[in-house]
Amino acid sequence: MSFPRPGRGSESQARSVLQTLCDLVDQLYSFRECYFETHGVEDAGRKQRDVREEMEKTLQRMEEVVGSVQGKAQVLMLTGKALNVTPDYSPKAEELLSKAVKLEPKLVEAWNQLGEVYWKKGDIAAAHTCFSGALTHCKNKVSLQNLSMVLRQLRADTGDEHSRHVMDSVRQAKLAVQMDVHDGRSWYILGNAYLSLYFNTGQNPKISQQALSAYAQAEKVDRTACSNPDLHLNRATLHKYEENYGEALEGFSRAAALDPGWPEPRQREQQLLEFLSRLTSLLESKGKVKTKKLQSMLGSLRPAHLGPCADGRYQSASGQKLSLELKPLSALQPGVNSGAVVLGKVVFSLTTEEKVPFTFGLVDSDGPCCAVMVYNMVQSWGVLIGDSVAIPEPSLRLHRIQHKGKDFSFASVRVETPVLLVVNGKPQGPSSQAAATVASRPQCE
């Protein structure tokens, strides 16, 4: 391809070439984002290979049309962006994008792409600098999205500093949504920001619903969001902590199907299935405690084991101090049982790979064994077989789970913090409580 001498014609030609390059890169990214619109889920294992092949074809086509505009900042940026389409770190992309921002410091898209390269490289501080710097030149939703994402991974020396980063992450994601309410990626990243906030603030159910709503909105406004394995894994993680086990299993399974080369979703699905299998088995056998021993344990229960729940010192959520009515586990109704307290013996405990929740079986009579799931506890906290445990105003849930031919049915009581429990007549102190944390996939969301 030949170009005229410098002048209006050459400027027009250069603009045309840049537009062609931009179109080629847009088509490449569309191929990646819309892959499952032209391929079935059974092709998921080929996606990364196909994207890489498409990238090579695109780079070859770009090289054929670059001509006299070679070396321009926009060309360097577009070539770096094409190299950045795969989930792997590309040294060449870093080199080209670094040159682009030096040639044209106000080229915001180059800063955004360079930030993503640093993110993939694991240099979170450099990524943060890129996205923050881009926003000083121009407020844009991509920088806000990426800044929200990076803030949650930014190094923090204290828990308070990490909490500030998480809150700032939510703010940046909200700003991105406000700039374009029809951008599915903004809604997805807002969901992730709420997910981090949920774990950073003791699993507040209100924040959980905000995260789930944001994920649902992402799928509503962006048809490609349904094919995002990270969305399915993150939402499944939230469902697991909310004890929506059926939805969690489906989410892990869907994420695994969409990205067969990513082992975590399949592992998480298998771990949850194993947990539910072990839990239901222990509940059915009451921890395999022999009948005579179980009767002896139950016979040693005393009113003193209720501690402050029996003598008017229990303080309800409304701040009122009152005595609670002792009820058997079998008399509990689904939901919060206000004004009631249950007292029983621990017959088993069960830990998971993630250590949260701490799960144990509670028995108070000849009735069925009930699972108790305790959150926000320090790792050193726990109860032993034979301990007496009182649970004020217990929140009961009945589970019916079906997944891939397996069925699980059981009752559980959720305890948000061990501070709410009375163990062997003693209330649990603040030192037993800790906030949970969660890790996200270490690449661009």
UniProtKB/TrEMBL annotation:
GO terms for cellular component: cytoplasmic vesicle; cytosol; mitochondrial matrix; nucleoplasm. TPR repeats lie at residues 229-262. It is found in: Cytoplasmic vesicle; Mitochondrion matrix; Nucleus. GO terms for molecular function: chromatin binding; DNA binding; ribosome binding. Residues 324-436 form the Tetratricopeptide repeat protein 5 OB fold domain. The keyword Transferase does not apply. GO terms for biological process: cellular response to starvation; DNA repair; positive regulation of mRNA catabolic process; positive regulation of transcription by RNA polymerase II. Keywords: Cytoplasm, Cytoplasmic vesicle, DNA damage, DNA repair, Mitochondrion, Nucleus, Phosphoprotein, Repeat, TPR repeat. This is Tetratricopeptide repeat protein 5. It comes from Canis lupus dingo (dingo). The gene is TTC5.
